[in-house]
Design goal:
Layout: E1 2-3, E2 6-7, E3 12-14, H1 23-31, E4 42-43, H2 52-57, E5 68-72, H3 76-88, E6 93-98, E7 104-105, E8 108-109, H4 118-131, E9 136-141, H5 151-161, E10 165-169, H6 184-192, E11 197-200, H7 206-216, E12 220-223, H8 233-241, H9 252-270, H10 272-291, H11 295-303, H12 307-328
Parallel strand pairs: 3-12, 4-5, 5-6, 6-9, 9-10, 10-11, 11-12
Antiparallel strand pairs: 1-2, 7-8
Bound molecules: flavin mononucleotide.
Length: about 325
């Protein structure tokens, strides 16, 4: 799998998710086998880049290459300028968000709502591709509603405009996240363009990834929600897709160490106050998936008032969890 000059180490990539795919999570997922990890979306409105949120989103220190910055906006010139500025700051791939279901940001169409206006989509893509000398990729849904699945038409325009790769979420904007993702339109899109296509939507493990790749003919898969509390999913999917490559299972002790290192990286990145809040979200997911959410444990983890107390609670409960397995063995 290649995007411009970059050969990806794996065809399974992390989906951009606002509030989730911050620098610590991206680095973690890359380390555990994600072939690529785009940033959370950054608004093209540079006036908002002074907020703490945007500044954190623009920080890529220590991130493995290629560094992907996702931009959201609706104005071709503003997106082109935002792309230029981010390349100057070290972005190596610019990804454009036409997949997010929010209808408007700052009173303008944005995300997948742009799919209703194909000429505007083309103007945006041309403006951004012409503005930077790094690959520009595009993330879309299959259309804006089930009667208007114009994904194939958008994909063809994208290819003509010089887009280097496409990610397609198998839902329309009107579907939001309801129902199941459909892969027929992704298959049609893949058959209509020569650029790499990532299939996205409801991929929750190696078996599903294999099925979706076989059905759609896509070049890779993009995994979003299934990585919540399970960044090791990339390792598992890679192992499944590259059958024959022996990948020893991770032990409970390995998972505990990954979680604790993740917490530590969140604290370092955000500092005390925001760190404890952001870590709480990830801990909730880890706890739900691994510890089965016993109420008392959840209370301990969620109620910890600062990073030191939170880390100590996590250490205690995940140590106990590792110990249980050792006793049962
Ligand atoms: C919490 C959350 C935040 C998201 N933020 C973004 C975003 O910033 N940019 C984007 O293109 N898609 C965003 N998405 C959509 C995902 O990238 C992905 O397309 C969607 O979740 C479907 O994939 P999945 O079924 O593997 O989760 C977000 C999804 C979630 C759940």
């Amino acid at each position: 799998m290649r995007i411009g000059p970059y050969v990806l180490p794996s065809a399974v990539v992390l989906a951009p998710m606002a509030g989730v795919t911050d620098r610590p999570f991206r680095i973690l997922c890359r380390r555990l086998g994600a072939g690529l990890a785009a940033s959370e979306m950054l608004t093209a409105d540079t006036r908002l880049w002074t907020t703490s949120k945007s500044r954190h989103r623009m920080n890529h220190e220590g991130e493995p290459e290629p560094r992907v910055v996702q931009l959201a906006g609706a104005e071709p010139a503003a997106l082109a300028e935002a792309a230029r500025l981010n390349v100057a700051l070290g972005a190596q791939i610019i990804d454009l968000n036409m997949g997010c279901p929010a209808k408007k940001v700052c009173g303008k169409l944005c995300g997948s709502a742009l799919l209703t206006d194909e000429p505007l989509v083309a103007r945006i893509l041309e403006a951004v591709v012409n503005a930077v000398d790094v690959p520009v990729t595009l993330k879309i849904r299959t259309g804006w509603d089930r009667e208007h699945r114009n994904g194939v038409s958008i994909a063809r325009r994208a290819e003509r405009c010089g887009i280097a790769a496409l990610a397609v979420h198998g839902r329309t904007r009107e579907d939001f996240y309801a129902g199941e993702a459909e892969y027929h339109t992704i298959r049609d899109i893949k058959a209509s363009v020569r650029i790499p296509v990532f299939a996205n939507g409801d991929i929750d493990g190696g078996k599903k990834a294999r099925e979706v790749l076989d059905f759609t003919g896509a070049d890779g898969v993009m995994v979003g929600r299934a990585s919540h509390g399970a960044p090791w999913i990339f390792r598992a999917v890679n192992a499944h897709l590259q059958a024959g490559i022996a990948t020893p299972a991770l032990l409970r002790a390995d998972l505990r160490d990954i979680i604790l290192a993740h917490l530590d990286s969140v604290y370092r990145f955000y500092g005390e106050e925001t760190g404890v809040r952001i870590a709480r979200k990830h801990l909730g997911w880890y706890c739900g998936l691994l510890l089965g959410e016993p109420a008392a444990v959840r209370r301990d983890l969620m109620g910890a008032p600062n990073t030191a107390a939170q880390f100590a609670q996590a250490l205690k409960h995940f140590d106990d969890w590792v110990g249980e397995a050792a006793l049962a063995a």
